Amino acid sequence: MGRKWNNIKEKKASKDANTSRIYAKFGREIYVVAKQGEPDPEANQALKVVLERAKTYSVPKTIIDRAIEKAKGGTEESYDELRYEGFGPNGSMVIVDALTNNVNRTASDVRAAFGKNGGNMGVSGSVAYMFDATAVIGVEGKTADEVLELLMEADVDARDILEEDDSVIVYAEPDQFHAVQEAFKGVGITDFTVAELTMLAQSDITLSDDAKAQFEKMIDALEDLEDVKQVFHNVDLSE
């Protein structure tokens, strides 16, 4: 589980580095979450989570502010939050979270991205039971032992604490997301390398080179879809 997170994040960051797609997706997500609750992150915990995540992807403040102002302005755009589950080559499993104003379009696009790349859509529940909803928060400048001590002093529970490259990654229950962050902020740490509520596979699988190439093409096709917010899977993509 430990190495997987940084591999996925580095791949996605590299893929989106020269495009505005990720910013547009965050703009839509911020608008929807701000519209559903208060446009103030201190009064809207879901918005606070999205903003923390946006910060780790270097989403410009202008885009964040524009989305929040749009939510305040009474615009009545309607979006549905959807989850699709499916399979790739050799037993690989995929979860696709989407945010859409056209359910039929999104379902068709997701189905096509699976089908054209060796995968197929599954029914609801066919994959999700093999994943766990997880808070993932990463910091630099601390050791795993120091982070463990810090969280224990703050009376915060963590599933796991692992050192990955130059970061220490905390894996916790989703309801501990803010508690973990506040524990770090209490000692002056306000920048996070990772700040996500995600779905982590209970175990990873390794694919052959050919199957892995096909799988990565499928994931790229899914992530390229305008309506897709996040994609989770159980494949080890490390070199």
From TrEMBL:
Q: A Gene Ontology MF term for this entry?
A: DNA binding
A matching Pfam family: TACO1_YebC_N
Q: Subcellular location, in the record's words?
A: Cytoplasm
Please state every residue range assigned to the domain named TACO1/YebC-like second and third: 79-235
Q: Which InterPro entries match?
A: Integrase-like_N, TACO1_YebC-like_2nd/3rd_dom, TACO1_YebC_N, Transcrip_reg_TACO1-like, Transcrip_reg_TACO1-like_dom3, Transcrip_reg_TACO1_YeeN, YebC-like
Q: What Gene3D superfamilies does the record point to?
A: 1.10.10.200, 3.30.70.980
> Which keywords has UniProt assigned to this entry?
Cytoplasm, DNA-binding, Transcription, Transcription regulation
Residue intervals of the TACO1/YebC-like N-terminal domain = 3-74
Q: Which SUPFAM superfamilies match?
A: YebC-like
- Similarity comment: Belongs to the TACO1 family. YeeN subfamily.
What is the name of the protein in this document? Probable transcriptional regulatory protein ACFSKK_11870
